[in-house]
Design a protein that fits this description.
The complex is a heterodimer. Chain A is built from 4 helices and 7 strands, in the order αβββααββββα. Chain A is of the alpha+beta class. Chain A has one domain (7-158): CheC-like (Chemotaxis protein chec, 3-Layer(aba) Sandwich). In chain A, strands 1, 2, 3, 4, 5, 6 and 7 form a 7-stranded antiparallel beta sheet that branches. The longest helix of chain A is centred in the middle third of the chain and has 20 residues, at 82-101. In chain B, helix 2 (36-46) packs parallel to helix 3. Chain B starts with a strand and ends with a helix. Classes of the chains: A alpha+beta, B alpha/beta. The A-B interface holds A 16-17, 19-21, 69, 72-74, 84, 87-88, 90-91, 94-95, 97-99, 101-102, 106-107, 110, 112 and B 8-12, 14-15, 18, 56-58, 82-86, 88, 103-107.
Chain lengths: 159, 120
Amino acid sequence: MTANPTENDLRVIAEQVWSSYLDVDGSKPLLPVPAAKVVVDVTGSVSVTGAWRGHVLVGCSDGASRNAAAALLGIELDEVTDDDVADALGELANIIGGNVKSLLPEPCALSLPHVHVEGEAGRYPASTEVCKLNGTWLEESVTVSVLESTADFAEASAT
Amino acid sequence: MKILIADDSRVMRQIVTRTLRQAGYDGHDLVEAADGQEALDKTMAEKPDLVLSDWNMPHLTGVEVLRQLRANGVQVPFGFVTSEGTPEMRQAAAAAGALFLVTKPFTADTFRDALDSILG
């Protein structure tokens, strides 16, 4: 039996990402908020396959996704393009997913990131939520979640 | 020195470039590659003095790039900058000839620790 990642694990990983890239001077932290207060417009995700199967998702409101792209690229907010947002969310999912993977049983492989709009609801029906971090950053929503694929999905895929 | 930065994310290539500058490594000639095949081709063609490469990229992974370079007799100093740093990956990186593996997220201090013996 392997312990799954926890919300606290996600908080520690997110703090490392924020302090390295998104809140270098410590003035713009990711703050926890109740789940009911978050809005997700864009989601970056990576899939994990192998000894553990599932997904790591980074969801953002439109405003948070544009703030993230501007901060990561070192450009002004009004210079951010849709491609920048997709690249930024994908890379955040990749970084956070890679760190989550280090908590999972080996051997596992991490996919290349995918980014989609319309939020995350309904995109991963054959999975259960393992843990989730709901936050606000610069007054915009950010979520990080880990979903584990269900056994039924694995069996269905094999047929 | 000429440094090749290989990552399929433009955002990450920008962060690596910025972090090199923050770590004090200014004035180097930077070349970018957006996937593993481009990293291999540009390393062969442009002969950089150092390669900083992501691991998980389209077409060829970073460690496949390194193995092909070594198989072709190219001994360029090569380090990984990647979101994963499992013991197995570190072993594979070292066995293939990598000098270091820096995990994301990283800081200027992390870069200095990894790169000072090469760029310092």
